[in-house]
Amino acid sequence: MIYVCIPSRDEAPTVGLLLWKIRQVFAAFPREYQLLVLDDASSDTTSEVLEPYTRVLPLTVIRRTEPQGYAASVEELLRKAVDLTDRPKRDTAILMHADFAHNPQIVPDLVRRIESGADLVVAEGQLEGEPSRGHRLLRRHAPALLRGVVSVPAVRDLVSGYAAIRLVALRNAIRSQAGRLLHTEGWAANAELFWRTARYARRVETVSSVERHDLRSRPSRVRPWEAATGLWSARRVLRASPVPPAPPEASARREAEPQPVSS
Fold first, then answer.
1. Number of other CB atoms surrounding residue 153 within 10 Å
2. pLDDT tens digit string along 13-71?
3. Cα four-point dihedral sign 132, 134, 136, 142
4. In the chain, helix, strand, coil percent, each to 5?
5. Is residue 262, in this structure, part of any structural domain at all?
6. What is the CATH number of the domain that holds 23?
7. Domain range spanning residue 240?
């Protein structure tokens, strides 16, 4: 089972189109899938838009009456996927945004890489469309703001919100924490998610994906200076809640993986 997890707040113009595009992808790429959408107390017509899709798609909608924020939405969706699965070593969660910036057409590539043995596959965004120069620069240099605290081998776009995670790795990451899995917010929460789940991944891979910022009907919510200060402030939070050491069996599995030969 592939659980497509979509956090949404005030995305009525795009969330329905995204769901239909995902349906088309799975029609051409037959896999069993379930759509999980969390409506974080939207003030627009998101709820009304989603209602008819629940009757024609394998869709579960989680609705909040009070907004809890991006990180809490992501964590609730991922925990829902872990709760639903009965085959965590086979099943996968795919996290993507509801604003149509993420390209559903690369879902098959994400899934194939999981099926080939990766436990975490991050879609690294190639930005097109609206983003300002500040947005682009921050996205490129975000890892530097987390350097020395967060490191995920092979991943350059640490703040991408588009990824596939094998549920056994996600489950182990959740169990490793006494309370919440994610302690940060916004872009930092994406980096934290990859950091925590990569500890339990046999292999981490990336794919390149065009990330469109001119297809949504609203202005960007990214404020580069606020995002930069948020990433820098997240360092203190993450140091206070470090990733636990990997269990011996996870380390052994990593060492057994074939290593690339340097040319």
1. 9
2. 999 999 999 999 999 999 999 999 999 999 999 999 999 999 999 999 999 999 999 99
3. negative
4. 45, 20, 40
5. no
6. 3.90.550.10
7. 2-256
